[in-house]
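Q: Convert this sequence to structure tokens.
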Amino acid sequence: MKNIGQDMISSFEIIRRISGDKWKFLIITHLFNGKRRFSELLYYIDSISKKVLAENLRELEHLGILYRVTYDDPIPRVEYSLTSIGYSLQPVFQSLILWSLNYATAYKEQLRILEEQEAAGTKPDSDPLLDDELNTL
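A:
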């Protein structure tokens, strides 16, 4: 029984390390579209610093999520692409993105209703976050 608990902790740690911050999520999402050079990722991922991008790329490479290929051209370049394990995250990420879009729509609607009720001077019937629409997502 002890191994099951350790496996669960290890699994959670892997999930946390892969998607525990916005940078890794964005890096992986951009790599779903194919190979990217460091400068392209820097361009597409707004407000990330070179240092933070490099650190996250190294960690994702260490986790086996992406490949780093160095070309010895007259002007050296590096390209990053997802491994098969990295690509296997695509349906998971797509589901998370779709869920967040649905949640955002439902949440905005609940806020609109709450604002209307407050403007009319009526007390809300329920907590907008506990409404059935949000619970069905």
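DSSP finds seven helices and three strands in the chain.
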